[in-house]
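## Example record

The block below lists the input lines for one assembly entry, exactly as stored, with component labels intact.
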Amino acid sequence: MTIARRPPEQVMRLSRLGSLHACRLSFMRQLTRRMAAENWQFARTEFDIDATGKGHAVYTATGPERSYSLVAFAHDLPDEKRSDRVIADAWDATFALFDGVPTKADITRLAKNVPRQEAGRISETELSLSRANRSVRLWEHVVDALADGRQPDASEIAQVGYLMRTTAVYGSGKFGAADREMIADRPEMQAPFQAEMLSVYLTRWFVRDLVEHIAHARGGAGAARLDPHIARRLGIGNSTGLGMAPFIINHPVLFNNWIMAREEAIARVRAVEHATSNEISQFHEIFRRANASVDDWRSEHPWQIEKLTALRADIARLRGYFATHEFTGTYPWDRLASWAEKHIAEDAQEWLLSLMLEPYARLVDDLGGCMADPLGPTTIDGAMPVGQVRALLKGSFEWALDLDWDAPENCARLWYVSEEKLEPRLGARFDEPLEPYEQPLAPARDAAAAYRELARFGADTPIAEFLEARPEFRHVIRRAQIAGFAPYAEIRDNTIGADVMPIDMLRAKLSFFGATHFDPRSDRWVRICMYAGAPYPDELTPGSADFWNYPEVAA
Amino acid sequence: MILSLNEVEALARKAARGAGLPWGVAEEAGMATRWLCAHGVDGAAALAALLRGDRAGPSGLDAGIKLADRAMTVLQQPHRIPDVTCPALVLPFAAAIARRGGGNVSVAIGPVTAVTDGTDLSLSGDIPDFADIAVMPGGELGSLCPRVGRAAPTGDVRNYLEDWARRTYAPATEESRRMGAGAGLTDND
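Predicted structure tokens for the full assembly:
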């Protein structure tokens, strides 16, 4: 039996995309699995930081063919400057991922530029540029405890989850960095965002060293080192605003490839006729551990509290159902997924589907290689008949064609870029004079307009004629043609409606990174945790490289 | 200043949009500028000349889009367009036509001949600022333009494009700063 991938009209709803969970295809886990399998070597080659926490450090990761180095700069940041927004101009720490091993001259050059972030320039020898701010509360707690010779309180650690959170990790040619195509043919960089994920992985190591260094400077010989078990629970946070939402709309082929890889993985596992006893017991173990992660998931935001309450109730329902589910019968995963579609909500459905993939490295992991976009820019096929373009638009946006796009509730928002450090923002169309600056991030509205205009042209007319007469629809036609080969390219919801929740788009992207513990601060801002539970470089082995995102729990 | 190809594409796209071109056309301007720069041709200067609009006549961008949208007919017979401004901008679209047809495409730009197989480009001389052009299937690649990973527009060109690009950014206001990003201004928790 083959099982079809779930249809885009089911998967590509914002509420479901905003309920995605990390899985074994996540970019962080692809990276840690590869580094362990290839026996990467790691070294801290410089650590020149004074007692006040100012200075620099270099951490180098070496794979089979190449080395990559995190060049870290630590700063003494006054509290009033600490902002996670793009409009910040100073941070607790700043970083670049250097392609190779930097010379002294490289570090001197980077020291003049990296601490300034967007105001500085990096070069083709740098693969990413990033920065991080302390969690003031946890940082102080951990430094105090260690300086005093004690370990920090486990519940304090669990409350926050990280000592520092990144507030942007720029790659792909930003601010002068190497373009994606300069590294895309390297096996270790083939999957998306591997340079950025490596940068964050090394950042976590640096942050552990830094907190111990500061505690030692304060406490002297009596200071404690961080207990490795506690250190392992610490991830790196990330604080993310609206930039990620335009990204998934502006990269329709790439986003399609992420979703399609996960949907194909789900379809393959659902098509498993008989699960072995090992696979079943591994699923139950991961289920228990993932459950512990949900227990640790904290948020003060009312929406997320409500979501978590529902997720926990659904997990309890699922656990109850396990008593009667025949795991040893035929097609156990397909039956389980079908049960879930009827009895639990989207958040728990997606959580379960991610867990179902875990015992099936052999079926799933090769899909990690399909998640990049090797095609590059898409050229419009001008010979395509108008009728076919209309059919493609209808295929993605049938629900949107008859919507009253002038009704205020359907177009209440608009996406724009502020001249203030080019921060991406969301505006109120009818309250602020922003319309001249609107970004093309309402594919459904634009598709509906194009669909209407196309009706004036004969169905057999080549689309080139339409484009010549109506060039303002050119971006719509390009997307329509992309959707012809990339079924998950388009979000099947209104991205400018009064009730749009941009955090749904943020979560969709972050879940593919492998983020956990989504913690919204508003409808357009979210904090998350990365690499919590992961082995540090000196602990990284094939045995520890894979399931670290699920906390170890007693059976 | 040396730019990454990603940066020069974004600058060109935003400048074209800031100058009033539709989004989809601005995307083409961005991709075309990047393609030229990646082949060692100063695409940013060509786009800046186009946006200055000193000369009447179809631009290389308009001509390129029109020809690429009719790739199948261009692959069957030569197409001539007289009096094209900034004709270098036709070349990335000739490359797209070559990729669609699976063979070489030649572009006569006044006295200069360009040949592309969709990936590489050869040029017989410096591209003029204004010329009659003819696009046709076939032709042999000569010595290849070097593939480069960086763009080096002059300061004047970059400033000019940035002035246009800036028009796509909303002015900073207190309300926008406070409301638009959905987060506060400090994070000392």
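Residues 105 and 137 of chain B are 4 Å apart (CA to CA). The first strand of chain B starts at residue 3 and ends at 4.
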